[in-house]
Amino acid sequence: MKIAVLGSTGSIGNSLLNIINKNPKKINIILLTANKNHKKLFKYAKKFNVKNLIITNPQSYKILKSKTKNLKINVFNNYECLNKIFKSKVDYVMSSIVGLSGLEPTLKIIKFTKKIAIANKESIICGWNLIKKELIKYNTEFIPVDSEHFSIWYGLKNSEKNKLECIYLTASGGSIQKTPIEKINKLKIKDLLSHPNWSMGQKITIDSATMMNKLFEIIEARNIFNIEYKNIIVVIHPSSYIHAILKYNDGMIKIIAHDTTMEIPIFNSIFGDKNKKFNSKKINYKIMNNLNFKKVDKKKYPAIKLLKNLPTKFSLFDTIIVSANDFLVEMFLNKIISFNDIYKKIKYVINLEELQKFRNLKPKNVNEIINLNRYVHFKLREKCV
Ligand code: NAD
Ligand code: MG
Fold first, then answer.
1. Which of 53, 129, 140, 194 shows the greatest Cβ crowding within 10 Å of its Cβ?
2. Pocket of ligand 1 contains residue 257 by CB under 6 Å
3. pTM
4. How many whole angstroms from 322 Cα to the centroid of ligand 1?
5. Does residue 134's CB lie within 6 angstroms of at least one atom of ligand 1?
6. Is the CB of 240 under 6 A from ligand 1?
């Protein structure tokens, strides 16, 4: 089996390589990519005997290039080189770059793989029509790897989609799960980065705390499964054991649970059709007896209210909210704005008069998304710096 991993040095990339490490037989990694972390990328290249690496950060590229000088490893600094790397289609690609930077590489690699698993939710939100077009054109299978969306996808397999009434997406409440509203602004960055259930990259950990992550997942679910917003319900479930609930119009309900590890959706995205066994734990009765479902407190998580400001159909307006959030989370992590400012400034951006026209426009190509992303960052830089 031949595979490639975009964003291999992050949390999803690490989980995937951990799975490969446990199931090394006949898996040939053709390409690994990263942005900055040349040390980890080099370590993985040696460990898994990978001959092609892409690293985009110019300084990291220089270092990695000199480190690999006498080794038979090709190092590139952009995604224009894919046709040099892939002589025929590989079996599987994982798209796990963080943020909107993942969209172009994802679009470019679809034609080189039989199956693509996409964790990079920002791509699915902003460029879904473009991704779908490539999937159809190159006959590439798609599997969503966000845990909720993988669960929905799994639950919908072999079931009558037209009977589906609504979907419940669970949200843990992130690192502020137990923090009273008035104390949120006193939390330190390290507190906000400490998620009670998942160990994930910094951006998505902050998105979980603001609940932007769940807003994104609603949009992601609408795009992938073609379900209207009114039929997607978010429910707080602090232990992240149940990932999605599917309610059908014949009265039946499917509750999809798995241990709180991304290795399960990732493992299934690779081996799901191969009848391979994942060594999971017994059902956890303690958690099952304390599911503790609650409505979302909109005062604590105001970002969830932004959904009503968004157009119900897929459009370039979805890019605005992703771009604004990408930029603002970085500003927050760099201590330029406060945690509560993230929501306030997203609200400012989505109300800008000049951006309203994007509510009715769909991206015709990736450049329209990239240019809009740049414009949103420009507007926010004016406002924040
Ligand atoms: P992370 O920050 O841990 O890793 C990001 C990876 O992307 C790294 O390999 C990094 O080198 C690479 N990268 C960053 N910027 C890049 C750029 N400009 N160009 C090329 N590569 C770049 O992130 P993560 O937590 O692994 O999340 C990855 C994606 O998966 C995100 O979109 C996230 O929302 C989604 N996701 C993650 C989880 C999780 O458990 N971590 C769960 C569901 C969905
Ligand atoms: Mg998720």
1. 53
2. no
3. 0.97
4. 14
5. no
6. no
pLDDT tens figures, 120-177: 999 999 999 999 999 999 999 999 999 999 999 999 998 888 999 999 999 999 999 9
Domain residue ranges of the chain, discontinuous segments joined by +: 2-144, 146-260+283-309, 315-385
- Architecture per CATH, 2-144: 3-Layer(aba) Sandwich (3.40)
Query: 315-385: what fold?
Result: Rna Polymerase Sigma Factor; Chain: A (1.10.1740)
Three-class secondary structure assignment of the chain: CEEEEECCCCHHHHHHHHHHHHCCCCCEEEEEEECCCHHHHHHHHHHCCCCEEEECCHHHHHHHHHHCCCCCCEEECCHHHHHHHCCCCECEEEECCCCHHHHHHHHHHHHHECEEEECCHHHHHHHHHHHHHHHHHCCCEEEECCHHHHHHHHHHCCCCHHHEEEEEEEECCHHHCCCCHHHHHHCCHHHHCCCCCCCCCHHHHHHHHHCHHHHHHHHHHHHHHCCCHHHEEEEECCCCCEEEEEEECCCCEEEEECCCCCHHHHHHHHHCCCCCCCCCCCCCHHHHCCCCCECCCCCCCHHHHHHHHCCCCCCCHHHHHHHHHHHHHHHHHCCCCCHHHHHHHHHHHHCCHHHHHHHHCCCCCHHHHHHHHHHHHHHHHHHHC
Calculate how far, in angstroms, residue 115's C-alpha sits from the geometric centre of ligand 1: 19
pLDDT tens figures, 240-289 = 999 999 999 999 999 999 999 999 999 999 998 888 899 999 999 999 99
Q: Would you state the pLDDT for residue 157?
A: 92
